[in-house]
Amino acid sequence: TNGKGQWLLPALYGCPRAEERKKLWESLCLASKLHDLPWLVMGDFNQVLSADEKCGRKGVNTAQCKQLLDCFEFLQPS
Known about the structure:
The protein has helices at about 20-30, 60-75, and strands at about 10-15, 40-45. It is mainly alpha-helical. A two-stranded parallel sheet has the order 1-2. Helix 1 packs parallel to helix 2 (about 60-75). The longest helix is centred in the N-terminal third of the chain and has 15 residues, at about 20-30.
């Protein structure tokens, strides 16, 4: 097939442990190099992008937010 009309839908669950989520973001970036099909990633990332998205007592780790933001920026089509 020529891939026309094909796309990918990875569903994921981001581990509550930050170190495991970091590995997931790295894996997503690596996976993006394996194909040129359009894709949509969905699931529970267990990570906010910024403090604005967080409610509750526990604060936001900005370094962890940046890891996910960096991953999303890497995945943006050029």
